[in-house]
Amino acid sequence: MRKGKGFKRAAAFGLASMMAAGVLSGCGAKVKVSATTANDKKEEGNQTEASKTEGNGFTDYSKGFPENVTIKIPVYDRGFEGWDPANNYYTRWIQKEFGEKYNVTVQYVAINRQNEIADYMQMIAAGNAPDIIYHYDMPQAVNYNSEGAMQELNLEEMKYYAPDYYKKAEKNINTYGKLDGKNTFFFAERNPIYYNWVTLIRQDWLDQVGKEKPTTREELQEAAKAWKEAGLGKLGDQIINKSYTYEYPFIGSSPDKKDLNLYLDLNVAPLTWSATKDYLKARNQEFNDGILDPEFYLNTDDAAWKADFVAGNVGTYSFYISANTDVINSLKANDPKAEVSVISPTAGVPKDSHAYYYKYPPYGMIMGINSKTDEKQRAAVFMFLNWMSQPDNLFFLQNGVEGANYTLDSDGIAEPVKDFKGESKLSNNNNKDYWCLVTEMADYGDEEKNLKANIRTLAPAGYEDLVKQSYDYTKEVEQYGLISPIFTKSVESTGEYAADLTAMWQEFYVDMITCKPEELDAKYEKYCKEYLDNGYQEILDEKQKLIDSGDFIAQ
Amino acid sequence: MKNSERMTNQIRTNRGKKNGFLRYLQRDWQLYVLMILPMLFILVFKFLPYSGLSIAFKDYKVAKGYSGSPWVGFSVFQKVFGKRDFGQAVGNTLLLNILDLVFSFPMPVILALILNEIKNRYFKSVMQTLLYLPHFLSWVIIGGIGYSLFSISSGVVNVLIQNAGHSPIPFLQDNTWWLISYVLIGVWQSMGWGTIIYLAAITGVNSELYEAARVDGAGRLKQCLHVTLPCIRSTIVTLLIMNLGKLMGGSFERIYALANAKATEFTTTIPVLVYRWGIESGKFSEATALGLFQSVIGLFLVVLADYIAKRLGEDGLI
C-alpha cells in the first residue's frame, strides 16, 4: 500500500509540474506577443519618422510599394449558396487590378453577418482583425472604438492617399467622424432608398371579403376582422428584439423634439415612451380581437414569418424585396389563386399619427482603422478605397462584365441578364458587401434613372409594379423621416445595459400584447418601473446630459 | 479488478526496494507514451484556459489583451452579484438541475435494469439503439421538433387535442407547462444514453451471485433488486457525484432551443447569462466572473458529495 501512495505522490508531482509548465508556457507566449507589438510600434515610429522627411510629409506609393504589403479587408458572409466571399471572381479581379499594380496583397476576411460582433470581437482579441473595422450602426461602431480596436485618423494622410474618396466622404467625416474629439470614423456614401422595404398583402383575400386596400391602421384592422369572419388568415408579425423602430407609426401628429432626441434609439427599446404604450395598446387589441398571429413571438427570424405567409396562415408580410426573392413564387405554388399587392406605410399608422419612418443618416458603412494597422498598411487601405471609388471600378463591381452579366440600355443603365450563371456571376446582393466600403447604393446620378435601375434589381420578374407602387407610397410620406440623434461621445450605459434590457423588453412586450386588455395598464406600469430600475433610467440620464451639453447631432 | 491490482502490487513489492517514478517510467514507458495525447488534450483545453480567468478580475478590453487591461479586484464580481438577473439565474439554474437530477438521473438506472431483463437479444439491442438515438440529435433540432409537436396553434399534438374537442394545452408557451415539458424532453433525450454505462456495469456482475440468489429462492424481481442494483451501486454513486458537479451548470443549448418570449420565468440561467453577456454583448469580464462563480460552487458541491459518499462507505471519486 505504501508503494501505492508513493506512486500517487509521484504522479501528482508529475501532473503539478506539467501544469506549472503549461502555465509558464502560457505566460511565455503572452510575453512574446507583447514583445512583438512593442517592436511593431517601434518600427512604426521609425517609419513615420523616415517618411516625414520626404516631401509633403507622406511617402508616395503611387508606383507601388517597394515591398509587398498585405491588407485585410472585411466582407460580410451572408451564407449565399455556392459563394465564397473571400475567394471568387471579383476578389481575384481586385487582386489583379489593384493588388498587382501596387504590390499589395488584398486578403478578404469573411465576417458572419448573423454573428458579426462576436466574430469581430474574437478577431480583435486574437489580434488578427481586418485593417478596416466596420459596422452599419453608430452605437456598435462606437463600442468597437471604446474596446480600443480603432486608431486615431490623420485626415491629411487620408486626403493624400485617397483624394477622390476623401472628397466624397469629407462632409460626413467632418460632421460625424469625431468621437470624444478624435478623428476616428470615415464613411461610405449613402443615397438612401426606402421603397425596397415593402409590406405585401393578400389581394385575393381583400377581394374575397370586398375590402379596399387599407390606408390606415383602422382600415387594416377592419380588413383583418373580415378575414377572420371569412375563415382566412391573420395579420403577420415577428418578434421585435433589435433595430427598434416599431414605435414610429405611433409617435403622434405633433411630437416633442425633446422626446425624439431622448427616446429614438435603434439599440434600446423606449419602453417608457408614450409611443410605445400606444403601440402596445393597439397590438394588444389586435391580439384580443383574434386578428394578430397569436404566435408571432415564435417567429424569431424573417424566414419564419415568410413561412407563415407562404402557408396562408397570415395575410401580410414585410421584407426587403429583391429580384431573387422566392416568397411570391412559393406562395403561388402553394395556392395558385393567391394574389399579392403592396400596401402603403400609412396602413400601419393610426388616424391621429403620421407615417414616420427611420431615416437613414447621410452615411453608409461606418469604418475605422484597426489600432494594430501600421503606416504602410494604412496607406494601402486608403489607396484601395480610392481605387474602388473610381467610377469604372465601382461599376464593374456592381454590375459585372458587360455582355455577360448585363447589357447597357440606351440610357446607359445596366440591364442584368436574367439567371446569369457564368463565372463572373455577382453575389446574391449584387456584390454589395464589396462595394459597401464606398457607397450604399448604385447611383446613376438622377432619381429617375436610379428608379429604373433599381426596379431591375429589386423586382422579381413580372412584379415590377410592386416596386413602382412602393416607390409612389414612400414618396407620399417622404416628409415624415426621423433621424435618430447621433451622439458624438460614447453613451457608456447603452453598451452596459443593452443586452439585458433587450431580454427584458422581449419578455415584457410579449406579455403585454398577449394579456387581457384590462390588465395592460397595471402591467405597463410595473414593467416600466423594472425597466427603468435596471438600466434604462441610467441610459436616459446619460443621454440627457449629452443632449444638455450639446454633444449630439440631430435633425 | 481488485484482485489483479493486489497481485501487481505484490509483484512490485517483491522487486526490490528501489522506488520512484523513474523506475515505473522505464518499465511502462509504452503506457506513458499512450497517455501523452489525452494529457495534452487536458492540458490544452482544461488547464491552459485558466490563464484567461484573470479577466474576471480585470477591466478587460479586447484590443488591449490580457496583459494590457487594468486589474480591478473584485469589482466585476460586485457588479455581477448586483444585477437583476443574477439571483434569478442562480435560482433557476438550481431549480432546473435539481428537477433534472430527480427525474433524469434515476431513469437510466431503471431503464438499464429493465433492458437487462429482456430475453430476446435482438429485441434488446433494437430497443437500446432506439432509446439512445435522441442523444445524437442536437438541441436545436429537438427544439424544432418540440415546437412542431407542441406549439399551440400548429403543433401536431395540439391539433389532435383540438380536433378531439378540447382546448389546446400551452406545453411550451406557459411558464409551468414549459418547466414540465423541459424536464420531460430532457428525460427523453438523455435516458437512453445513460443506460450504456449501467449496462456495462451490469455485465460485470458475477453470475455466481445470481445462481446463489436463485438457490435461495429469489425471483427475477428480487434478483434485480438485491443482486444487480447493489452491484452497480458504486457506478451510480460515481455518476451521481459527477452530476452534482453540474448542478450549477447545465446545458445552454437546451434552454436556448426550447425557450420563447412567452414563457420566460425559468429560462434565465447562469449559462444563458454567460452567453448573453459574453457572446452577445462582448462583456467578457462579467461573463468570466459569472462562469468562475459557477465553477467554484460546482467544485464545492463535488467535494461535498464525495465526502458524503465516502462517509456512506463508497469509494468516492477524489
Describe the structure.
- The complex is a heterodimer of chains A (555) and B (318).
- Chain A is 48% helix and 12% strand.
- Chain A is mainly α and 555 residues long.
- Chain A has two domains: 198 residues, Periplasmic binding protein-like II (D-Maltodextrin-Binding Protein, domain 2, 3-Layer(aba) Sandwich), CATH 3.40.190; 237 residues, 3-Layer(aba) Sandwich (D-Maltodextrin-Binding Protein, domain 2).
- In chain A, the strands form seven sheets. Chain A has a three-stranded antiparallel beta sheet with strand order 3-11-6. In chain A, strands 8-7-9 form a three-stranded antiparallel beta sheet. In chain A, strands 1-2 form a two-stranded parallel ribbon.
- Chain B is mainly α.
- Chain B is 70% helix and 0% strand.
SSE layout:
The complex is a heterodimer of chains A (555) and B (318).
Chain A: H1 2-53, E1 69-77, H2 89-102, E2 104-112, H3 116-126, E3 132-135, H4 138-146, H5 155-161, H6 163-176, E4 178-179, E5 182-183, E6 186-189, E7 197-202, H7 203-208, H8 217-229, H9 257-263, H10 274-288, H11 302-310, E8 316-320, H12 327-334, E9 340-342, E10 357-358, E11 363-369, H13 375-388, H14 391-399, E12 406-408, E13 414-416, H15 432-435, H16 447-458, H17 464-476, E14 481-482, E15 486-487, H18 492-514, H19 520-548, E16 552-553
Chain B: H1 2-14, H2 21-27, H3 29-47, H4 65-68, H5 75-82, H6 84-103, H7 106-117, H8 121-132, H9 139-150, H10 156-163, H11 175-203, H12 207-215, H13 220-231, H14 233-245, H15 252-258, H16 270-280, H17 284-311
Helix pairs in contact in B: 5-17, 6-11, 6-16, 7-11, 8-11, 9-15, 14-17, 16-17
Short descriptors:
heterodimer, A: mainly alpha, D-Maltodextrin-Binding Protein, domain 2, three-stranded antiparallel beta sheet, 48% helix, 12% strand, B: 318 residues, mainly alpha, MetI-like fold, flat
| CA radius of gyration of chain A | 27 Å
- 3D shape of chain B: flat
Average of per-residue pLDDT values of chain B: 88
Q: Would you tell me the structural class of the helices and strands of chain A?
A: mainly alpha
Architecture per CATH nomenclature, i.e. the level-2 architecture of the largest domain in chain A: 3-Layer(aba) Sandwich
- CATH homologous superfamily classification of chain B: MetI-like
- DSSP strand (E) fraction of chain A? 5-15%
Q: Could you say what the CATH topology of the largest domain in chain A is called?
A: D-Maltodextrin-Binding Protein, domain 2
Strands of the widest sheet of chain A, in order across it, are 3-11-6
The unreliable regions of chain A are: 1-5, 18-54
Summed over residues and divided by their number, the pLDDT of chain A gives a mean of 88
